[in-house]
Protein 1
Amino acid sequence: MKEMQTTYDPKDFEDRIYEKWMRENCFRAEIDPSKVPFTVMMPPPNITGKLHMGHAMDETMQDIVVRFKRMQGYSALWLPGTDHASLATEHKIVEKLHEEGTSKEELGREEFLRRAWAWKEQYGDAIVGQLKKLGSSCDWSRLTFTMDEKCSKAVREAFCRLYEKGLIYRGSRIINWCPDCRTALSDEEVEHTEDAGYFWHFAYPVEGSDERIVIATTRPETMLGDTAVAVNPSDERYKNFVGKTLLLPLTGRKIPVVADEYVDPEFGTGAVKITPAHDPNDFEVGLRHSLPSIRVMGDDGSMNELCGEFAGLDRYEARKRIVEKMKELGLLVKIEPHSHNVGHCHRCHATVEPIVSKQWFVKMAPLAKPAIDAVVKNKTKFVPDRFAKIYFNWLENIRDWCISRQLWWGHRIPVWYCECGEVICSREDPTVCPVCGSTHLKQEEDCLDTWFSSALWPFSTLGWPDKTPDFNYFYPTDVLVTGYDIIPFWVMRMMFSGIEYTEKVPFHDVLIHGLVRDELGRKMSKSLGNGVDPLEVIAKYGADSLRLSLVTGVAPGNDTRFTEGKVEAARNFINKIWNASRFVLMNVDCDVPAFGNIRLQPADRWIISRLMATIREVTVSLQKYDLGIAADKLTDFTWNDFCDWYIELVKPSLYGGDPEKKRSALGVLIFVLENILKLLHPFIPFVTEEIWSFLPGERGNIISEEYPRYNTKLSYKKEAKTFEGIIDLIKTVRAMKVDVNCPPSRKVHLFLIAEQRRLVSVNKQSILRLAGASEIEFIEKGEQAGEKTLSHVCEIGHLFVPLGDLVDIEKEKERLKKELERVTGEIARADGKLMNKNFVAKAPKKLVDDERAKKEKYLDMKQKIEEQLRLLDD
RNA sequence: GGAAGUUUAGCUCAGCCGGGAGAGCACUUGCCUUACAAGCAAGGGGUCAUAGGUUCGAACCCUAUAACUUCCACCA
């Protein structure tokens, strides 16, 4: 039999184990009617780059849940994939082309797409590699890319259905335009920041008079597109202006003064220039007053041909020139600093321009309603549930979704325009116009928003719209794991899409996690350069340590800080398990009896009792997605109970020379270790699998083992409680020795007045070893343990330890007096409660009983301490 | 202008149904005890942000306040 290395080194086996899992098809989810399916769709990472720490946490959480469910006997499918990330990817490729001295226009659509697919191959593979390094147990046979044929088919189906229902329309609306990416954006893709700017006050002259009206604007360049000035109808200052005509400076265009409630008289000058083509509010005002809409800016953010001398200028250059010009004309009244909310493209951070443009939209109101209802009715639950509020907030205030993008990389909109004017939306590429028979059809140039295909992810991956066996078996999915920042982009859209297309919610639970921040609590970002590469951490500490560190001490939905110290702590814990396992295995030199055939000793029953309690707590926590609590319980049990206590307690049995005792001890050790490894496997899959392979006997992979189950017959609650008296005894002796500076090597003689002599006797060797004692001697009440003796009342009885020269009687008296004080205080506290009639009457009976028992215990302690004090006084 | 979150040990954070405040790291002391110094043992350290309220009983529930964080919102 091969042996375990003396130190834990994950590099020795992580890759090898992953290959083994792959080779043996351990991640493959089968359609098995005898099993219950459990489905998780991996949020497909963008192919724009490599995975960051946030992904690492997201994937780890999913893997933990999936491995847990798989071990529980579900047919667990974790379907992996990647996202084409239309805008983000195209942006990156365009940047790269720019560096190469070319452009997408120069290459043309076809060549550009060829490059994009090459990009996808490269980065998609890198991501898959990273996921494997992390230990992700996803079903690679079902790996999906959002532009795979099946997804494209689903996208077309979805688009056509909405189009046919009249829920998709094309129209000219104000949209968010990114002049750098040169595409429309949805509202969600715009980030607002409070930017410092100015308020320019311009005077607009009234036609045929000397009167002027002063407006304030933050975007002077848009004045070229003004088609009115609006004032509040109740504003006395401007009453006489309403209906008059103004001469728009720089253009001489005649524009009316209109009255509209939208204007806030308190803000600015109370008069607002109206530019319907370049401002969402102005657009609305324009509609109400039938104002023309004049677009003065091109797709690249420069002023267009309507702008006279400013034509061709960049928007900011134009702003400068216009302000100068207005000043020259004496129409610049004043400039005041003003900070306001400015929208930025969330991809390239360029300032977004609201622009009127012909785009495709999804009508949201009819889709939002059922998506809200589903969560209200608990068909889908958010964990933690407070995130439901954020979800509602979005859906309740939602506006129509602009889905067209002026991009090439993505799903091209399945609409064709015929020369006769017919618009054809089709699942198949049409060749002939159904109206005029023409074959001159042109497909819509625009692509769909990436999130349009992401919205279909829970079912497009399973073959929808076809009724595939996968779809029938695995859909709807069980849990979606993602960050709170993705709720508006994705969760919400999957919800209404799932309900609309499949008539089922796409998942029952949404497990929301927070962001992984840096050591100082800052968001990890490229610009700050504070990101930590998961692969580097894995290289140094191993994937298991990284995984464990990402879920311990983390509450659902809360942000967490990444520190190397946490990874180190996780590594140390894993090292502990490694060595504990090594210890157990190096003692195996005989057949280990089956657990059921072992006559259990009190210590055995204690550890098994603790094991059962742990199994129960961990299982409950995992079912509630409380991964942090589960990890915490497991660490505590493994390290404290198993390693620090149980292993030490059974060493005398291993070393004592009695083969029967040794065999039994080994049996229990192996049994508990097996359970620990299984319980921990979802968290730290590699090392548990590796250790598992060293355990004696024929066994398969731990990944395919059954998750431990709570067994009432093995709970031994009462016996475990009693056994804790032994632990308490050992701790007491240790503390006594430290208290008097007794060297650990100096063995002490223990005298004990106790009722449970048998329990003590059975564990005598363990007690001697762990307490650093030479002998335990039972004495009767009233009997003396000799001169210079320290005493302590512990759970199991009254302990006396003669320590000779180390004992300072006066100090011991002091200590006893203090102890007496404490105990007296405890009695008073218990009395305080028990004398309270309300407590006795209203508190649960168990609590009252417990309180009475405590009082009894302390009274007994008090008596013993007083006795001892009297003795010392004599 | 709305909304959510956070505030607990020196640091980072847990804390379930309300029933004697926890972990890791750091710190102090002693130990290389034949698995592990990435370790063992024993310790010190908290006005659970503040003020009220509900309750027999509050870190936990309610109200208000403060500080910080985040999301949303068209005030030109």
Protein 2
Amino acid sequence: MADNYDPKVSEPKWKKYWQEKEIFKFNEKDLKSEVFSIDTPPPTISGRIHIGHSFSYSQQDFIVRYQRMKGKNIFYPFGTDNNGVATERLIEKMKGIRAKDMDRDKFVKICLETVQKELMPQYVDDMKTLGLSCDFTIFYDTIDKHSMKISQKSFIDLYHKKREYRKDAPTMWCPTCETGISQVECEDKEMDSFFNDIVFKVDGKNLLIATTRPELLPACVAIFYHPDDERYKKYKGKKAKVPLFNFEVPILADERADPEKGTGIVMCCTFGDQTDMEWQKAHNLPIKMAISTAGKMTELAGKYQGMAIKEARKAIIEDMREQGLLLNQKPIRHAVNVHERCGTEVEFIKSKQWFIKYLDLKNDMLKWAEALNWYPKHMKVRYDNWVKGLQWDWLISRQRFFGVPFPVWYCKKCDEVILADEKDLPVDPLKDKAPVKECPKCKCKELIPERDVMDTWATSSLTPRLSTELVKNEKMRKRLYPMSLRPQAHDIITFWLFNTVVKSRLHDDINPWKDVAISGHIQDPHGKKMSKSKGNVIAPLEIMNKYSADALRFLAGTSKLGDDMPFQEKELVTATKTMTKMWNASKFVFMHLEGYNGAKPKKFTLVDRWLLSKMQKTVKESTESFEVYEYSKAKSAVDLFFWRNFCDNYLEIVKDRLYNSAKYSEDEVLSAKYTLYHALLNVIKIFAPVMVFITEDLYQTYFKKLEKKESIHVTEWPMYDSKQVDEDAEKLGDTLVEIASIARKFKSQNGKSLKEEVKIELDTKGFDIEAIIEDLRAVAKAKDVLFVEGLEAEKVPGTEIQVKVSF
RNA sequence: GGGCUCGUGGUCUAGUGGCUAUGACCCCUCCCUUACACGGAGGUAGUCGCCGGUUCGAGUCCGGCCGAGCCCACCA
């Protein structure tokens, strides 16, 4: 055994070993063992693994490795989510091409090839370097043919279930990218603007209204005031004339109008913002579009038609100023919604979009969440709040190029929807022919393909299907779904988790999983979110290179499930120290266990019973913690046992029996060996889910020849044995440790080496401590241990015993 | 504005009612002892955010306040 542990040598070695020996392979034929199936989060590949991934994937891997050691048949697939705008942009940049300039089919092909050939191999290798124990042969990409087929099938199924509709509706829209976008794609941006007090006329008299967006005047459909606002009650039922455009709109009361804001009266334009849409719906107002999909003023805007939004705003303000319709202008700074990709202000544009109808299911959605086991529990609240706040059906269409196409054609004449035949899936309507030659309704022969693609979430919400349907064996597939566990971070509860539940419920009326384990985020050292723009991002590969993958995993294992954690470099140092300690302690143990054949002693010595009892409690605690996905508690339990009980005390105490075994009986020596063997084996087993490489190294070095399993990661998890719990032995053993500690302190404070011999005087106050005297003599290097009645010196903590140490 | 989480020695952290509050990093002292100087033995350091309440007893439960982080909403 080498003097020092070198992760640079060991980690690549075991990484390769696991792949070659297929240690993590899912056994499709094993229909007996309990299955544990994981709905692994599919990352979007944009380069090398990043720190957030390294954390959340480590944490889910702890759980999986524990379950594997519990003897379960592990279904742990690895998928990727390269379907969507992020990948589209990445490929455009990498290849210097524009999606717009080519057929969708061709662009998708380039994307797939680039991702799979140039990015994926490196990324998957990064995951293996981190020690992820997925079965990487169970692989899907949310944009591959397999996924497309399932996604399109899902669409067709929901259409038949009358859960989908296509509607001309206002949607969030980016005029630069010319696509509908969803809430997730938006972000807030602070911008300078003006509050303009402009003049509407009611019965020829002025009515002042404040607005930041005068360019929307041509789309004005109503004026609102708060029903309790005394100032404006008199306008009830009247009409106001819109400045410059000179048409009339009704003046209405609605509680959403804030009397405190601006002049307390507000114009509603379809559509300036979310509230405008709500008003339109609630008061059944007409829809007027002043802005086109390209972000230009429409014909409604009269002389301003064709102008860009900001250009029109300026022109309209100028004109109003000239005509005395602008009474006041106040600069403000406010947050506006922008598209995160390009920073363009989000507009609401009416266009034909596909929706999944689910707003009517809010009560059911809450019940669905009830039926899931949430770890930690409080994360469910986020789901509930999201559901309660839902106001719109699920918009799933995107006017993009890269994505899963809708399997749909329309009749040019009557707009009838023609779905693809399921046996033809996956289809690309832009390339493939419709399953019928003519419209079944009006017999029109001209069928138009749908150009839009589905939003990423429409497909990624099917991951339980995407992965389990890779399994051919029908019987096994039934055992896999619903899946055992969805591990994911808390930021996408309202998207990925929620959407997956919705899809599974709409299709099969069951939850997609039994448990959900929500992990937190890694933050920068000051508790701030890591982001490229802040420049506080830490690269996991550098960490693994500087320390080790095990150290990085150790750090990931210190944060409590669900908690965010600031990145602490010193924790990596602690991890490295722990690994060094494990290596050295093992070196010592293996040296003394040479030739040991696993034999059990007739009788255990007191100190051995003390250690075994503590060990059983550690096994119990870490097992119970892992059962509820609290890997950090499991880790700290074994950490404490290893450092304090095993290294600091037991090894020191047992040395005498090992080095001077002639002084002891054969059975006493055997007792020590048995205890060393099992305590250390259990320690590395319990550490194994977190520190996967060094534990494997130690297992292969010594334990394998007796334990026989190919890898520590497929050995049996330690079984809690209450028969080894011995409270009396623990108490007496603790007393021994306390007295030894007093002796050490005495030496230390007197500037002496710990090997310095001392004299120990004791008044046991009637306690029988005979069983520990020999060990005490050995560990404290006490030449004399004397019993003195009536001694008043130092009290041994936890007892009445008095002790005095001298040279 | 709403929600969730958190607020413990200089720093990070354990701890869901009960003996002198856990561990780590830092700092100081001592020790090269046959697993480990990539170490060991000790030590200094905390009014457990603030106020009030429940209780024989609260870091731990309840209420209020203050602060931080994240998510969501608003943004005329």
